[in-house]
Amino acid sequence: QVQLVESGGGLVQPGDSLRLSCTTSEFTLETYAIGWFRQAPGKEREGVSCINSIDGRTYYYPESIKGRFIISRDNSKNTVYLQMNSLKPEDSAVYYCAVEFSAYCNDGHYYDDEVDYWGQGTQVTVSS
User: Fold this and answer.
1) pLDDT for 67-89, tens place per residue?
2) Burial track 15-39 (b if 16+ CB lie within 10 A, e otherwise)
3) SS3 82
4) How far apart are CA 14 and CA 91, in angstroms?
5) Does residue 1 have a pLDDT over 90?
């Protein structure tokens, strides 16, 4: 089974930062658009962010995270990151790394059925 491995979640206070990482030893992520979803209790999974392969263009979907979250990739480490700053309680969720068999993200939407591989999820809890 293909394994995408997320790490970096944890329990933090409002205003703190976390950096999530996504990697795999099984194939080269550089080829593909890579993104992040999140799912809070009682809510549907939503697309958060995505980064293109070839040109590295980035996309952010919920208005609530724009200006606070940054997606990036380090191809030498075969790793994609989600830097989350100024965290709020409403950011609390399980965050999932996602691989799309495409070089490009979609502009304006990011849906579950666009994803080909999922990570196992990492818990982010923001609470005082």
Assistant:
1) 999 999 999 999 999 999 999 99
2) eeebebbbbbeeeebeebbbbbbbe
3) strand
4) 10
5) no
